[in-house]
Every structure is written in C-alpha cells, then in structure tokens.
Records
---
Amino acid sequence: MLYPQSNEFRDVISLNGIWGYKIVDEDFVPRTKSTGLSPMAVPASLNEIVTDKRICNHCGKVLYEKIFSFPVRSEMRYRLRIGAVSHKCEVYLNGKKIGEGINGFFPVDLELTGYLQRENRLSIVIDNRLSFDTLPVGEVRGGKQFITFDFYNFTGIHRDVMVYSLPQNAIEDIAVETIVDGDYEKLRVHVRTDCKKIRFSVRDKEGNVIAESKENVFSVRNPKLWSPAHPYLYTLVVETETDRYEQRFGIRKVEVTENAFLLNGQPVYFKGVGMHEDFCVSGKGNVSAVNVRNFELLKWLNANSFRTSHYPYSEEIMDLADEYGMMVIDEVPAAGMSYWRDREVFAEDRVNGKTLELHKKLFDMLVDRDKNHPCVVMYSLANEPACNEDKCREYLEEIFAYARSKTDMPLTFAEDVKYGTEKCCHLPDVIMMNRYYGWYDGVGDTDCVRESLKQEMRQMHLRYRKPVLLSEFGCDTVAGMHSCPSEMFTEEYQTECIRENCQALDETEGCIGEHVWNFADFKTKQGLTRVGGNKKGIFTRERQPKSVAFYLRERWEKK
Ligand code: BDP
C-alpha cells in the first residue's frame, strides 16, 4: 500500500485538526449527527488532554466525528487514510459503515468512492480495549484495563487523517528490490497497477536522472550505498499514462554472521536506544516538531540506530530515519506476553492460536508498509514473550517460520529470561537481550554489573553461535537528583550503571551493539515503581539531557 502523495494526478486533503468526541455505549452506531460532542485534537491521545479522570481512564468505546467537504471530481477515486487509531475502530461515512481497523499501530485505508456527498460526516468509533485477541495483549477485569506492558495505553487518533484521490487505473503498490551485481546495482521493481505501459526512472539526490527503463529490471551504475554515515537516497519515478508516483529508496545490503552484523559487507556496531512514541500533551499523537527534535538528539548523541519498541512507529518517523541514517529494528506490536505471574500466559484461554493469526497478519502489514525503507535492517517479532514457557517456544517457532517465508531480512525478538531457562533463542538471527544489571538485578549495586553481564552474554553467544545485542539496559533517574557517592535514581547512578554495562560489552565477543533503555522518560500506567512514569530516559520527557547523555555522546563518538 502506497503512502498518499500529491502531484498532477493525485491529491491529498488533510483532516487533521479539531474533531468532536464523546464516550459512547457498547452498541452505539452513528446513524445521525451526534450531539454533545466536545472538542478533541487529531492526531493526539485524549488521555493527555482531558481533565476528567473518568474520561482519561475510560475503558470501552469513544466516538470521534468530523464534518468535511471538498470539491469532489467525478473522474477520480477517493480513499480515506487514518494513520493509526488505538486500538480498534469502526469507520462510518454519513452514517454508513465503510470499514474497520484491527490494530492501533497501522494505517486504516478505506475506499470512499461512491460514499462522498457535498457535506460529509466522518465518524470513527474507537474501541480502546485490549484482550488476548489484540496486540499488544491485555485483559479487561471488572471494567478496567489490565496490562503487563510498561507504556501508557493511550486512546485516540494518533496519526494523520487524510482523504486522497487516485486516478483510474492507479499505481497501487511499488516494491523496490535491489540486487548487487558487480559495479552495477540491479533494481527489480514490482508494481501493482492495471496499466500495461509503465516507465521507470531513477533520480539521484540532486535530481539528475541516472537510469531509465521500460522494463521492471534494470541497472544503476556505481550506486552510492545507504549507511548511517552516508544515508544516500534515490527516487524511483514510476509513470503510466494516467498516473505517477515517486518512491524514495536506498541501496544497502544486510547480512548476519556468527559474530557480526554486516551492512554493505562491513561489520557495524549498533549504538542507540529503545524509544517510545510519547510526548507531553500530545501523548502518542504524531507531532513533526517532536519527531525532528528526536532525530536531532539521536544525531547529537552519535547514535546510529534505534528499535521501534514496542510497536511500529509512524511513517514520518521511518522517513526521517532513512534521511538521518538511523538503522531501525522494526518491531511488531507483540508486547504484554509475559509477567502475568499467576500462571502461564501462552495457554488456550490466553495467548493462543487466534493471537498467532493476528500476529502473522500484522507482520504482513508491517512488511507491506515498510518494505521500501533502507533504514529497516531487521524485524523484531516480539518484546519479552515468556520464553521460558514451552507453549511460547511453539508459538514463536510458528511466527518465525511464517516471517521467514515472507522476507529475507534478519529476524529477531527481545528476550529477558535468564540464561539456562530460555527456550527460544535458537530462532532469531541476532539474540537481543534485555538486561537490567544494577537495577532490577542487583538493586543499588553497580559492582555486580560487569561480570554478570559479560558472563551471561558470553554464554548466550557461545551456546547459539549468534551475535548478541544488549537491547535494553538502564535505570530510573530523576533529572536533577544528585548524590555523592552515587545512589539509585540519581544522575550519577545512571551514568555509573550505564558505563559499567558498556564496559562489559567492550569485553564481550560477538556483541554487536547496545541500545540504552530509554531514549526519553515516558508515561506508563500508575505503579509503585513509577513516579510520573518510567524515568529511564537519557533525556527527560521534555527532551533535555540528563548527565548520562554526555557520557554516551562521547563514547559513541569514538565507538
Ligand atoms: C523491560 C521492558 C520495557 C520496560 C522496561 C522497564 O521491555 O518495556 O519499560 O523493562 O522496566 O522489561 O523499564
């Protein structure tokens, strides 16, 4: 599915801005214009905006409504695109249901042709409840949402909403496959359209045409490769008699060996962070200013990568990652599959075959959405599933086999169970380990970090003969809190703990990188260990540095 674009054949109309919203009953259908709506911003999370606690904590359905009109041209096709709605939704136009969304982190893209009138009422009935039939998973208990994952379960329309027009016989999809062939790079372009006559051309960064073809397989001479140091991007222009689409792409090759991750044939070390789409007031809403600020800070840190923990991020973020040269570990929204504590989470009445089917579908949707981004160097299939459970092994074996049948890209997942009890590390190409030595493990003790971490990573690497990446480590830190000697929650402790972790990695064979948890402080559900959210950020939620940022900036400059 292509991102909407505007040119001489296509148009995009934004529906962002102020919408009306209200809480509605279970069986609500927006047949007629609703009354009693209050203003709400789109994109944004309502939980960060409202002042009424009941609305903030509401578990169930919410109506969002917007009236719009524009000059409809009879020769055009029209579609609606909602970047993301958390979590499920039913979409109505002028009282008629036109489709639904099944997950909070993917676009909902629906046909509007034939439904549009002079004035239109777009109603989105959001259901924010999580269950074992959704991803991430959760459970409604006594009317309240229970979750085990550690980020706030925001409700809202979180990404851009637009109506876009398409010509008849539009170009429906483009996939650019790059194949290294001596000094040339062969491109194989897969296009979905009803048009037979298609022309391809490639423009370099300066806009010069460097290749043209009528066939879908052709060469680019002496290509400039994409990498974090040189994030070179080309534009492929696909033209038919009635349509044109410009698809940005980059040429790069990824491989995994027993000890290394190779980008364009060279070993690369991942320096970076796990992140969240999270900001004050906007919540999970896509805000361009915040996105660009985040990338400026990542560059300032000398980072070269991040993981989209724990769900796919907005397309705008993926575009910026291509441009800024950030390698992305692109994660499916499979979180919450551990720490249920009472009994196994992989069970008939919990994470089961139905969850797996959804998981497969979402993997397909992720690859479909992100396939042309050179920044994506690996897909992550889950965060911290209970991989000490036998049924989890069976489940992950299935999802890994499925994903491998769909892509050649390296696959991974983040695991957090102690060496010796893990049952799933035979599956990924790279073993991502989330470890909190000096925090959850060795509370207040940074002396234990170096040896414990080194030993566990070495064991993992030797047993599975795969590269290992420390995908989460860190400690909660209240910005501005200091102590000498260092104590937990102070900036000194965070720097010390992260330094000990990093030094262990310098001495660990097969270690291909470090992702600090987290880029910035973020909102979570309330809990005894969360004072105003998770404070493991290198930056505050307002995006100002804590002391550890200066340590990492210096370390990563040299690394
Ligand atoms: C890890 C989770 C992450 C949490 C982190 C923490 O993957 O989502 O936020 O722990 O506790 O286990 O800070």
---
Amino acid sequence: MLNKKDIILKGVAASSGIAIGRVFLFEDDNYFCLISKEIPKNARAAEKEHLDDAIERTESELKVVYGKINDVPGENYTHIVDAHLLILHNPAMKANIYKLIDAGANAEYAVYKVMEQIIHSFEIIENDYFKERKADIQDVGKKILANLLGKQRKTPLSLNKDSIVVSHNLTLADTVTIREKSVKGFATDIGGKTSHMAIIAQGLALPAVVGLKTVSSQVRTGDIIIVDGNAGEVVLNPSFKTIVKYKKECAAQAEKIKELENLKNLPAQTIDNHKVLILANIDTPDEAASVLLNGASGIGLCRTEFMYYNRDSMPSEQEHFERYSSVVKAISPLETTIRTTDLGGDKLAKLGLLNEKKEKNPFLGLRAIRLCLKYADMFIAQLRGILKASAYGKIRLMYPMISGLDELREVNEILEKTKQDLRSKCVKFDEEMEVGVMIEVPSATVIIDDIAKEVDFVSIGTNDLIQYTLAVDRINEDVANLYNPLHPAILRFIKQIVDAGHRAGIDVGICGEMAGDARYTAILLGLGVDKFSVSPFQTPKIKRAIRSMYLADAKKTTDEILKCGDSESILKIINKH
Ligand code: PEP
Ligand code: MG
C-alpha cells in the first residue's frame, strides 16, 4: 500500500460540513468541459472529421499568433508557436486520438485522455526541460478542445456526485452552473466567507473552504481530497487513518441533521415565549422546495441575479414573471421577499451592457440599485415581472444597496410609474405589496430613522454592511481575519437599525450570513431582530438555538456587549454566557 501522508492546507471556513471525494479541477476555460459519451459506429468517421476540423482551426489560430509575435520588437518568441505547431501535428498523438474514437469515444474525451497521458509521461521524466513542456502540451490541448467544444459549451459535464470542485476562483455564474451537477463540496484558492460562491455552497449545505491560496495548483483531477468546512481546511493525499477519522465525523454529522428534522414544524420561540420568524434565503427558484422542507416561515431574501447569468441577452418581462410566480406559488400562503437585481461587484454577468469596462473598485461602482437606475429598461422589465407575480401570492419587494433617501425616492417613482402603466392596461397585481430596503451601506444606517418612515420593512444585509463599514473586501482572503461581525461598530449599527425600525412601527429582519451562524443568534435576538433569513439548511439549527434560550438572558448579555469598545471584550462576554 502506498505510504500516504496528509497534506493539510488552511483556508477560510466558508460552508460547514465535511466532504470526502475526488477532485474536479475546474479551470476558467474549456479545457475540462468534457462529455464522455459513446459514439455509435456509423458516426465515428464524422467524429474524426470534427477532430480534423478543430485541429485545422487551431492551426489557423496559431498562425495568427505567430504573425503577432513576429511583429513584436525585441526577443523573438516564435519558437514557442513552432513548438505548439509541432505538437499539433504530431502523428502519434493524432493516431492515438483516432484509436480512442474508433473504440467509441467522442473527440473531446479522446483529446483530453491522450493529452493527459502525454502530460503524465512528461511529469515522471526526471528532467526539468520535459516537465516544462507539459505546459505547452496543455496549451495545445486546451486550444483543440476549445475548438471542438465551441464557445458556448462551458458546462463541466463530467462532474459527478462524488466530485469536489477545486478551482483558483469560482464566479457566481460558475457556481450556479456547477450546482446543477450536484457535487460534494468546493475548495478555492481565493475568496472570503461571504463571497457568493460561499453563500451558494451554504444554500446547498455543501462543505466549502475558500482562501486556500494554492490548492488548485497542488491537485489533479481524480485525486482524493477531504474538505473540512468546519475547521476551514482541506486534506490532500489523505492516509487511510485520516479517511476513517473523517468518515466517522461525517456519520456523526448526518446524525445531527436527522435530529434537527424534528424541529421542522415547531415555532422559533424562546423559552420565555418570545417569537421570531425564521425565513430562508434562496438564490434560484428550485430552492423553494427546500424552504418548506426545512420548516422556514417563508422567503426573506429571494436573490434574482440568477436571471442574468450564463446568457447574452436581457431576460424579458415574461421570463421574470414566470420564474418569480413559480416561487410565489410554491411558497404561498407564506411570504416571498424578492430583491431586485444586485448585479455588479463580484456578481459578474456576461451581458453586453455590464462590465463593458473594468471597474477599478467594482464593489463601490455600478452595482445593484445604481445599475438599475442607469439601465432603467432592464429594471422596469424586472419590476413588471415581480408586480405581475404578486397577483399569485404574498410578495414583498426589496431594493438592495440603498444609500440614501433621494435614491429610494427615485426608485419608488419608477415603481409607481410601472404600477400606473399596469393599471392602465388592467393588468392585475397586488396593490398592497409591501416595499422595503436592505440596509447594507453605512450611510443608510446613519439616516435609518428617515428611511424607516418611507418603507414598509427593512432587512439588514450584514455581508455588505460589514464590508463597507469595516472597509474589508468580503471576498479577499488576505483580510478575512478583519471581517468581523462582532466589531462593536457592527453591533451598534444593528441596534440603531432595529430601534429605528421599531420606532417607525416596521419589522426589522437580517438576511446576511451572520443570521445563519448560531454563535450570533443570542446577540441578534437580544438586539431585537424580528426576522432571521438564513439558507434553508440553516433553518433548523437557528430554530434550535432560539428554542433553547431566554430572551431576557439574551437582552442582558447584549446590553453588556453594547458597552464594549473592542471585540475581545465582546468575545469574553459571549464565552462567559
Ligand atoms: C448582504 O449583503 O448581507 C446580503 C444578504 O446581500 P448579498 O450577499 O447578496 O450581497
Ligand atoms: Mg448585499
């Protein structure tokens, strides 16, 4: 038996749980976007033609590159392209690909397999020159595959239920695509606890560790990996003993989840009878089912960015209507809070009008409501879709990233005009639909009394509120240690928001990741939060926490905490209680 030695990499715990599986190295291009499918005998000749075609197109591309390199003054690098052309026309390589196609493989898979064999044979030669040629082979392989697959086919179809996706980075669009493949977990080089990939992983109850810095360069597809989302580490090359230890932990974890199921139909009520609501955050309509399964009392945050991903044209009003009404019908009679789109920041979309120029500070740029105000047609299509869906159940409309009253009024004016237009055409919608805002920008917190008078509810978006208040990029692993929900400024801000909301007679929810972390439940309860919106799978855990405490105790502790000027003292009080 091989003598295995654990290699432990430490990162940021992004989504709890433990997963043991095989690495699927997800690269940000088409290289691993493979389909392994059987090609029938009578289609194999055409498959070879498909391959020849791709090789020919790759050759043309390389020649264009050759011309460009030749034009560059200074050192001549054309030998690199020469080497690539030689690889491309290597007769043995082509013969081997043909052989696999003759055996029934599709061209993509055959190219991938042959490239992998060549790369592997180069890796075991004890010679640096050959080891470095690996990169050239990879480059050529990627180019052929890109031509075989065409530009549209970015879905990693060879992912399976045992895969743990490892990548340098995963955009939200990548994660949304990958999630359809029901993988086991995620590990990335970069990212922080509230990056959107982390949030999706939590929503799927999949273990994830981010900010591992080098994991993507230390593994190969097929390697065994353990993702420990509780401790924020991954184990590469695990020994038998380590695998057994983690398997035991997995079993204990499954047992705990079972226990929590019993809470499903019980209210989120403290021992001294204070009731709050636990709602769910969802990122796509297909999560609506798990909201009910986990016993949430509705949807506190329905993100709508999914409408814009992996497409190159804007969603129509009808598409908006269909997707939102499907959620509302599934959740009715419970409420669904739909947030208007929060594109921008790290939520990139491949739509023509967005990110046409790279912003230097995208989180401070054209994001969320700002983008909607700039592209009013896009926004109105969404508003119309939401309004029409409101005829099918209780919708609350919520705007993200509101920074001041002028902005709020401008958006409400657009909403009012949209309603007028629908009325004039006798289109049904809920005239009583409540309209609220996310409080996630410090300026909105400072003027919260004024905002609270003009809205029906507020929901605290701590993911961004922490980022903007503490000036800590929420997806940058290098400052992840500074991203602190227990910073006194954050707790005092939450207190201000809750008190102002209650003075104005409206409810105050919290829908950032802080709400789904049981370590903060007592504090949030003590601060007076009315609604906790968490990922569906976190619902039972937060419910259990609430059902095991007294509001009076939580308040006492919180009063003590609010007097502290530093996080360490706050932590001490929490640990004491
Ligand atoms: C937040 O900022 O807390 C929030 C819930 O919004 P998002 O994570 O989508 O930015
Ligand atoms: Mg936010």
